[in-house]
Amino acid sequence: MKRRWLAAAAALAALWAAADWTTLDVGLLKPLVLGAGSLRVEASAESAQVRLDGVVRGETPLTLEPVLAGRHRLLVEHRFHPPAASEIKIQRGERLTVSVELATAYGRLLIATNPVGASVTLNGESLDELSPVELHPLEAGRHEVVLEQFGRETVNETVEVLPGERHELIVELNRVAMSELRVRTQPPSARVRLVDGPAPYRPGVRLPVGVYRIEVAADGYRTKNRSHRLRKGVNVIDVTLDRLLGRLKVQVTPPDAQIAVRTDGGRFRGFQPGVPLPVGPVELRVRKFGYRTRLERFRLSEAGRTLRIALSRYRVSGGEFLRDALASGGMAPRLVVVPAGKANIGAAGGDGMRALPAQEALIGEPFALAVNELNLGDYRRYAEAMNLRLPTAKGMDSDRHPVVKVSWREALGYAEWLSFETGKLYRLPDEREWAYVASRWASRAAPCQQGNIADRSLGRVFRQWRVIDCDDGFVRSAPVGSFQANALGVHDLVGNVAEWVNDCGPSGCGNHIARGSAWDSAGDELQLSFRESYDRPSDTRGFRVVREL
């Protein structure tokens, strides 16, 4: 009985060994008889399929153990690459690693949108072309596509491009709800920037509904940067910036000099020690009778500033001529020093103006007055530097003609520019200063010798006008300085053009006084006391400047 069991067991073992040897599996017997090793397969693309001797064994990276010693056929396949086939040989006990570099394959990708003109980002890189766009050759594989168009929903798509094939991505870009943005700022000149917006800010800019960071900044103010949720329709946001302040200390010699300060392009006002001033450009004017006026310009920071200013006494006398150099090149208008003193003046009113009674004008400090009305050539330099229009008028367009068609504010702007260019304080003359020079040094020459007025030359062109029975040879204005100067050396206080002065009109500062007559003046308008107020420029009005000493 025992022998029968042993015989049966031997028969079963033989059958098992035969089956193990004849199957495709490695089994247990083959490695013992033939020997075995291990195989690791790596590929340049993850998840590549590995076939060993025609049998799928898994995906890369893959380790196979045991692998029978001997020669084997290895095939690595990937849907985005051509297959890579090779023959390998494994020795008994060997640990073999095979690295397979899969070749690059290419296909085509068409990207189209409705509507057309969307920006395309492929794998994080923006393309120069707008949709529709066809990319060829394009490396086979998965690609991330982002499509964006203002006012439309952004689309993110993952596409697969197979070797040698053409893939089409056609996308409908749906509209999104839009908002309109208006930012009201204080100060009004503040700059507004959309930090992360799809378009630069301008009043009324249209943006897709959402959250945006808005930055508001201005010189001399603390910048504000905040997020705002914009809703469908009009969104109005009010932003008030906080003014940055600094402290200014001024030590003046002599100590009783008058100090005035100007900030933000406003008017000079009395300086108050200890009171903070807005940071940014500051002008400081220091005056005292018998001393030269001092003008200081600087930028005040939050850290503050200390100035030490010593005034110097006058070193000029009446009748002396001066001329300042401009920082940008060239010279300022020629000036004559007007000495302090007094004169009897009266002011005859023009149409709608109240006449001022005869009175005595007392000028306590000397000043310098431009010898001539400002000519077009000097104004041209200012207009070009400030990128302003150059006013011209018929028959008065040479550089030596007086500039006309300038408003009172434009005349003031030129004087302020001169101050910046020279470092001296220029301004328009006060009415009393103008009348003082015109009356005290009045010329006794005939009207047509003193200046260009309404005479026979003008009457031959404008026959309906009242004219003086003389002939100065000019229909409209004449080049400045063409006629006799007064006793102080100042030209054209009679005729040529009326001149803006610093003073407001009788109804307020919506208009301003102009003194003197013009090329179309006759009769009472030729009196040195004639005055009128205006609120707009004209081809009969110009100006001349004053410089403080």
Question: Can you tell me about this structure?
Answer:
Helix content is 13%, strand content 42%. The chain has 549 residues and is mainly beta. It folds into 5 domains: 72 residues, Sandwich (Immunoglobulin-like); 67 residues, Sandwich (Immunoglobulin-like); 63 residues, Immunoglobulin-like; 66 residues, Immunoglobulin-like, CATH 2.60.40.10; 228 residues, paralog of FGE (formylglycine-generating enzyme) (Alpha-Beta Complex). The strands form 11 sheets. Strands 32-31-37-36-35-38 form a 6-stranded mixed beta sheet. The chain has a 5-stranded antiparallel beta sheet with strand order 29-30-33-39-34. The protein has a 4-stranded antiparallel beta sheet with strand order 3-2-5-6, with no helix packed on it. Strand 35 and strand 36 form a beta hairpin. 27% of the residues are buried.
Shape: elongated
Secondary-structure-based class equals mainly beta
Question: Under CATH, the topology of the largest domain is which?
Answer: paralog of FGE (formylglycine-generating enzyme)
* Strand segment tally: 39
CATH domain class name of the largest domain? Alpha Beta
CATH 4th-level superfamily of the largest domain: paralog of FGE (formylglycine-generating enzyme)
Strand order of the largest sheet: 32-31-37-36-35-38
Secondary structure tally, helices = 7
Poorly predicted regions: 12-24
Query: Approximately what portion of the residues adopt beta-strand conformation?
Result: 35-45%
Q: Tell me about the largest β-sheet.
A: 6 strands, mixed
Please tell me the total number of domains: 5
Mean pLDDT: 89
Radius of gyration: 46 Å
Helix content: 10-25%
> Based on the structure given, which CATH architecture of the largest domain is correct?
Alpha-Beta Complex
Distance between the termini: 144 Å
Oligomer: single chain
